[in-house]
Specification:
The protein has 358 residues and is of the alpha/beta class. It has 14 helices and eleven strands. The longest helix is centred in the middle third of the chain and has 19 residues.
């Protein structure tokens, strides 16, 4: 599914919703989400609930859609119902999250740079290679909404394209944490007058990118981030630079990505564009809300964290231009239970664009 649906056909399906199976209602809901028709997606979830009752997957998706619509209270209520069902089926389901919440507290106190998960991941070369190939095949053969990887990278790409169209001075786009560089390659062909730089600390991923993708205006690099940024200069003095990232900071502690922001400011990077995860804390049962919660960071799962990006951007000298939340368009049919990863479908992808303050 790539979101290229027929609005008239979908409206016809919505009018006859009761005739559909729960699985087909879920497919239709995904099409509506892809088209930005969130209210109609909720109608599909209502139809599913009437047929089989509220279940773990639809409750998570409902919460995600409601939060993306700006209805935080309603999203929290849906998530509370989800949490209740999960604990009824798996009474110890929160144990891993309690460990994660304690780990986040210690990490913030000690200025640790990353989650424990991210620290260990980079030691497994076979996992890095297999994950890179998975992303390569997804980006090569899939549409915008086929899976989570394609969707979140698609959200970032839209933010990048919007900024390029708004600001003709941009001469370089620097992708912090590119991993599989297929999106960089596609953008380099679409915007041949822009220099594209894919950066990753993992040498193996960079080597695989260099073998797979070549273009005159495309470069893949690893190494010390600060030294690379010191050498990053557009071809012409009037040109500027954008730094972008996707699903990178959600596995970092604030001290690390604050350093990225501050380095960008010191180098005069004009634009920051990012797509990261925002979600509810499984223990508190509430979505993380910038400017509402006292916390600046909060857990989503045992591997991922929400951050108050607006606050951290402001601290680094950047003004938020806009941000959008997008629910996950999953490809799993209902009903499906995930007792060990029950909150996956409750998160949203937040894409934000920020500009260096004058």
């Amino acid at each position: 599914m790539d979101g290229r649906n027929d609005p008239q056909e979908d409206q016809s399906h919505l009018d006859q919703l009761s005739l559909f199976s729960p699985e087909m209602m879920d497919v239709l809901a995904r099409r509506f989400i892809a088209a930005g028709r969130y209210s109609d997606a909720l109608k599909c979830y209502d139809g599913i609930d009437k047929k089989i009752g509220a279940n773990i997957l639809t409750l998570g998706k409902r919460a995600s859609v409601l939060f993306a619509m700006g209805q935080a209270d309603e999203a929290n209520a849906a998530f509370a119902e989800l949490k209740m069902k999960i604990l009824k089926e798996s009474p110890n389901a929160l144990a891993m999250y309690e460990v994660a919440e304690n780990d986040l507290s210690i990490a913030l106190q000690n200025d640790r740079l990353e989650t424990n998960h991210n620290e260990s991941y980079w030691d497994d070369k076979e996992k890095i290679e297999s994950t890179w190939r998975h992303y390569y095949l997804s980006f090569k053969n899939s549409g915008r909404y086929t899976n989570v990887g394609c969707q979140i990278n698609g959200a970032l790409i839209e933010g990048i394209k919007t900024t390029l169209k708004e600001d003709s001075s941009l001469g370089i786009v620097f992708n912090f944490g590119t991993f599989c560089g297929f999106p960089d390659y596609n953008l380099s062909k679409e915007f041949p007058d822009t220099q594209w730089v894919g950066y990753d600390r993992e040498t193996l991923a960079i080597e695989m990118n260099r073998k797979a993708f070549q273009a005159d205006n495309l470069l893949y690099i690893d190494g010390d981030f600060h030294r690379l940024m010191a050498r990053l200069k557009p071809k012409r003095p009037e040109q500027s630079v954008m730094l972008c990232h996707v699903r990178s900071f959600t596995e970092m502690m604030p001290k690390k990505f604050q350093d990225v922001y501050q380095t960008a400011r010191e180098r005069g990077i004009k634009w920051l564009v990012g797509t990261e995860l925002i979600g509810p804390n499984p223990i508190s049962g509430r979505y993380f809300q910038s400017g509402v919660d006292d916390k600046r960071s909060d857990i989503i799962s045992n591997q991922t964290t929400s951050h108050d990006y607006e606050y951290f951007l402001d601290q680094a000298g950047y003004a938020l231009v806009n941000q959008t939340d997008e629910p996950i368009v999953s490809y799993h049919a209902v009903p499906v239970a995930f007792p060990l990863m029950p909150f996956l479908y409750s998160v949203v992808f937040r894409t934000y664009r920020a500009r260096l303050k004058a």
